[in-house]
Amino acid sequence: MKVTIEHIGKIYHYNDTFNAFVFLAAINTGYGEEHGGKDLEKFFNKLYACYLKDEQDANIARLADFLSENWEECRSQTENEILEDFYIVNS
Predict the structure, then answer these.
(1) Fewer CB under 10 Å: which end of the chain, C or N?
(2) Is 81 within 8 Å of 53 (Cβ atoms)?
């Protein structure tokens, strides 16, 4: 299944529903509106990578919120560093 999403005037194409699900979690944080869509693809890619890397199966919405709230710091961190900080805050 292919999924096409239009968000803030930009078209995003995904080859599966899981990517669309992660994208939905990313935009539900309000990240796109807050930042005018700037770096939304980088934000999505970082969220997607963290979610796949996570061995504790974090709630995707909570992880997306954490990433959005801490984006300036998280954008330069590795997935492991982000997940470590996420679990410290959410322990």
Answers:
(1) C
(2) no
Can you tell me the distance from the alpha carbon of 14 to that of 51, in angstroms, rounded to the nearest whole number? Answer: 17
Rounded distance between C-alpha atoms, residue 84 and residue 32, angstroms: 25
Is residue 91 predicted with pLDDT exceeding 80?
yes
28-43 pLDDT per residue, tens: 887 666 666 668 888 8
Question: How far is the C-alpha of 91 from the C-alpha of 15, rounded, in Å?
Answer: 35
For residues 88 and 91, give the distance between their C-alpha atoms in angstroms, rounded to a whole number: 5
> DSSP class of residue 1?
-
Q: Which long-range contacts (CB under 8 A, 24 or more apart) does 5-8 make?
A: 7/32, 7/37, 7/40, 8/32, 8/33, 8/36, 8/37, 8/40
First-to-last C-alpha distance (Å) of the chain: 37
> Reduced to 3 states, what is the DSSP secondary structure of residue 6?
strand
